[in-house]
C-alpha cells in the first residue's frame, strides 16, 4: 500500500498511483537500489507488534502512520476502498486511539486521497480535500470536540498542526 498511497519525491511518483517499480503482490523490483525515502519509511503495521494481522495494509486497505513532526496518527485509505476505515475493528480502534491521543493533544485522521476526516471518540468531522496550504485546528466547543480547516497563514493555525 505504501508503494501506492505515498508520494515518492525521488521517483517523482505521485500519491495514489502504483509505483512503476512495484510488482504488485510480490514486492519491489529494485529493492536493493530503492530510494532512501522508501528505505526510511515503515508503516505502523511493521513497527507496532500490537497490531494484529487484520491490519496488514494489503488486507485492510489501510496504512497507519505516526507522523514524527506532528505526533498525529494518520490512517491512509486506499481510494479504491474508501469505506475500509468504517469497518470494525478499524473504526472502533481509531475511536479508541482518538480518546487516548486527545488527552495528549494529538489528532487521529483518516486520509482518502487528501480528503481528510478527523476522528473523535464519539463522532467524526469530514474536512473535505486538504491542500499543502491547509492546517487542521481541533478545539472544544459546547462540550464537544470540533475540527476546522485553516489556511496556513491564519494566525489560529499552529505549527504543530502543520500538514
Ligand atoms: S521503489 Fe520500490 S519500495 Fe519504493 S515505492 Fe517503488 S516499489 Fe515501493
Walk me through what this model shows:
The longest helix has 13 residues, at 90-102. 18% of the residues lie in helices and 28% in strands. It is globular and about 55 Å long. The strands form 3 sheets. It has a 5-stranded mixed beta sheet with strand order 3-4-5-6-7. The chain has helices spanning 2-5, 36-40, 44-47, 57-60, 90-102; strands at 22-23, 27-28, 62-66, 73-77, 108-112, 115-119, 124-129, 134-141, 144-151. It starts with a helix and ends in a 12-residue tail after the last strand. It is α+β, with helices and mostly antiparallel strands. The mean pLDDT is 93. Bound molecules: iron/sulfur cluster. Residues 3, 8, 19, 21-22, 28, 30, 34, 38 line the site of iron/sulfur cluster (SF4).
Question: What descriptors fit this protein?
Answer:
163 residues, alpha+beta, five-stranded mixed sheet, two-stranded antiparallel ribbon, 5 helices, 9 strands, globular, binds iron/sulfur cluster
Helix content: 10-25%
DSSP summary, beta strand count: 9
Radius of gyration over C-alpha positions, nearest whole angstrom: 16 Å
Helix vs. strand class: alpha+beta
The small-molecule ligands in this entry are: iron/sulfur cluster
Low-pLDDT runs: none
Number of helices: 5
* Neighbour order of strands in the largest sheet: 3-4-5-6-7
What shape does the CA trace take?
Answer: globular
Largest sheet: 5 strands, mixed
Question: What is the structure about, briefly put?
Answer:
The chain is of the alpha+beta class. It has five helices and nine strands; from the N terminus they run αββαααββαβββββ.
Amino acid at each position: 500500500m505504501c508503494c501506492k498511497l505515498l508520494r515518492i519525491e525521488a521517483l517523482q511518483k505521485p500519491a495514489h498511483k502504483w509505483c512503476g517499480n512495484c510488482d504488485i503482490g510480490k514486492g519491489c523490483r529494485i529493492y536493493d537500489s530503492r530510494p532512501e525515502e522508501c528505505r526510511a519509511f515503515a508503516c505502523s503495521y511493521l513497527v507496532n507488534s500490537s497490531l494484529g494481522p487484520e491490519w496488514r495494509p494489503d488486507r485492510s486497505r489501510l496504512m497507519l502512520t505516526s507522523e514524527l513532526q506532528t505526533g498525529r496518527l494518520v490512517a491512509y485509505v486506499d481510494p479504491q476502498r474508501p469505506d475500509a476505515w468504517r469497518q470494525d475493528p478499524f473504526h472502533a480502534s481509531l475511536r479508541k486511539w482518538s480518546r487516548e491521543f486527545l488527552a495528549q493533544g494529538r489528532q487521529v485522521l483518516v486520509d482518502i486521497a487528501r480528503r481528510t476526516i478527523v476522528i473523535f471518540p464519539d463522532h467524526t468531522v469530514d474536512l473535505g480535500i486538504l491542500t499543502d496550504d491547509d492546517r487542521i485546528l481541533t478545539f472544544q466547543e459546547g462540550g464537544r470536540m470540533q475540527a476546522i480547516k485553516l489556511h496556513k497563514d491564519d494566525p489560529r493555525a499552529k505549527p504543530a498542526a502543520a500538514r
